[in-house]
Amino acid sequence: MSELLRTEALTKRFRGLVANDNVDFTLDAGAVRCVIGPNGAGKTTFISMISGHLTPTAGRLWFKGREITALSVARRAKMGIARKFQTPSVFDRLTVDDNLELAALGKPVSASERRASIEEVLEITRLRDVRRVVASALSHGQRQWLEVGMLLANRAELLLLDEPTAGMTAEETSATGELIRMLADSRNLSIIIIEHDINFIRDLKAPVTVLHLGRVLVNGSFEEVAENEQVRNVYLGHE
Amino acid sequence: MSEKTTTASAAMRLPASMRLYSETTVAVVIFVLLAALPLLVSGYSIYILPQYLLYGMLAMSLGILWGFTGILSFGQAAFFALGAYAMGLAAKWGVTGNPAYVGLLASLVVGAGLAAVVGYFLFSVGVRDVYFVLVTLALSIMVEQITVSQSQITGGYNGMFVPRFSLSFGVGPELDLSSDAAIYYVILPVVAAVYFLLRWLLKCPMGKVLVGIRENEDRVISLGFNTSLFKTAAFALSGAIACLAGALYGVHANFVSPSLAGVLFSTEVVVWVAIGGRESLLGALFGAVGVSALSNYLTAVIPEYWQLVVGIIFVVVIVGFKGGLAGAIGRAFGGEARNGGRE
To answer: ipTM of this model?
Structure first.
């Protein structure tokens, strides 16, 4: 597998607070990675620097072999980095169809290709029955899926999912896990997930990166991480 | 995902194509009726109606910006006045070719150009919301002041004469616009064309991106769009339309003066659009026509209180009908306000 994303000594300081401290991170194409850590560990700061919503104080990033440290959010999105926000960020007053179409318009493809990809996304996200419903009338879980669907319609290659299962029922959470696995396995998408739901992370069977006080504490499989003494102290021990 | 929300939202399903179709039908019927009007009535109504329609065109220029892109401008009058001055100067300077066409072209270039330059510098550094409003307010004041101070060119407070040109079409006789019916039949198709052009634009990808910016600009940026370019384009289009409306207004009124650029008139435009319904072009258009006609009537009947009456209507519509009269009508006929939404 080829390397898709790399960060080198990525650091973000907010006045006195060091939110991210020398984070070195690599992700291959088609790989899934869970980023976990207690509140304030710097998880959202980390993906905000990948998406371009925050500028690093120091350090550099590469995406598909190209340095993106200085690129804007829109430029990175054009290159294929798409972000799902912690609270679903969709177009509330537009229909599901219009939401997806607008997302699809972000990349230069023909109108027929666009329509085809919207149909496909409606299928994957199980939103076909509500395609003409305005986003504000959807359930919380459906809104989360709509936002993921928008990233797909936008032809993203790297999905940054900030707490994708927040507010979901157990059933919806497990369906989300299956969706993420499918996107990585059969569509070769790379996915970085921030999550708090330990069961969800375990079921995902993806490598885990633990952040603590802005630093990478440990990388490894869920089992390795779960048994790590340091991790138990800082994170799992407080569950 | 859950059964309950699916059925609940089925009731909210919006037959979007049907509603668009019906607004287009309403628009076509109104424009056809307006086209037939001079056959039925004559005199003052036919003289004054083109003026109201140009106010309506000015209101649509704000509608596309405020109602569909989410950018409020208090500078529309500045563009309107610049268009009228462009026509006056084209006649005064005796430019080569038909000065009417030169003036109209100049108004489009000036309107789009000024808005593009101002918009680009503001939007690319992230000027938004109320800060943008303040800059457009200043734009109105600046244009008004410049037209006052450059009196050797503009005539200052005395204003400037704008002739009713004759239009030549290459073949056939020239069309003399001095008759009310002639200029009516020039202005009405232009206003209708602008309306349908904007409706078409809103169905294009660009229009969808603009609505997206109105709804959630950060999301649009995160999908890879350079929103400052789209906003600049919307402002340039708005400026061009406002300027063109002003150019025709100058010809129709035979006159332009600095107050046409002023903040007071700019504010009136915002009031028309708010009353008519900012998320409907037809609402903006006939908000302007209706409020100006009513104001005109009231100045004759109750000269001391007409502004109070218009003010009360404004407050009632803002408080009582979100989405203006167009939004209220839309809801009354079963659908929701345009673009499927309540506030």
So the answer is: 0.93
Residue B223 to residue A82, Cβ atoms within 8 A: yes
In chain A, which residues fall in CATH 3.40.50.300? 3-80+157-238
Disruptive mutation site among A76, A102, A146 for chain B (greatest number of B CBs within 10 Å): A102
At A118-173, the pLDDT tens digits run 999 999 999 999 999 999 999 999 999 999 999 999 999 999 999 999 889 999 99
Whole-number Å distance between alpha carbons of A56 and A177:
31
pTM of the model: 0.91
- Measure the CA–CA gap between B27 and B33, rounded to whole angstroms: 10
Residues of chain A with C-beta less than 8 angstroms from the C-beta of B12: 133-134, 137
B289 CA: distance to closest CA in chain A (Å): 29
Q: Which residues of A touch B (CB under 8 A)?
A: 51, 73-75, 77-78, 82-83, 85, 89-95, 98, 101-103, 105-107, 126, 129-130, 132-134, 136-139, 141-142, 145, 150, 154, 169, 172, 175
Q: Chain-centre distance of CA A155, in angstroms?
A: 14
Say if the Cβ atoms of A139 and B14 lie within 8 Å.
no
**What are the domain boundaries of chain B?**
50-262
Alpha-carbon distance values, B288 to A114, A163, B63, B166, B308 (Å):
38, 48, 11, 28, 17
CA distance B219 to chain A (A): 6
User: SS3 string of chain B?
Assistant: CCHHHHHHHHCCCCCHHHHHHHHHHHHHHHHHHHHHHHHHCCCHHHHHHHHHHHHHHHHHHHHHHHHHHCCCCCCHHHHHHHHHHHHHHHHHCCCCCCHHHHHHHHHHHHHHHHHHHHHHHHHHCCCCHHHHHHHHHHHHHHHHHHHHHCHHHHCHHHCEECCCCEECCCCCCCEECCCHHHHHHHHHHHHHHHHHHHHHHHHCHHHHHHHHHHHHHHHHHHCCCCHHHHHHHHHHHHHHHHHHHHHHHHHHHCEECHHHHCHHHHHHHHHHHHHHCCCCHHHHHHHHHHHHHHHHHHHHHCCCCHHHHHHHHHHHHHHHCCCHHHHHHHHHCCCCCHHHCCC
pLDDT band per the 50, 70, 90 thresholds, residue B9: very low
Give contacts of B230 with chain A, Cβ < 8 Å.
none
Look up the CATH architecture of domain A3-80+157-238. Answer: 3-Layer(aba) Sandwich (3.40)
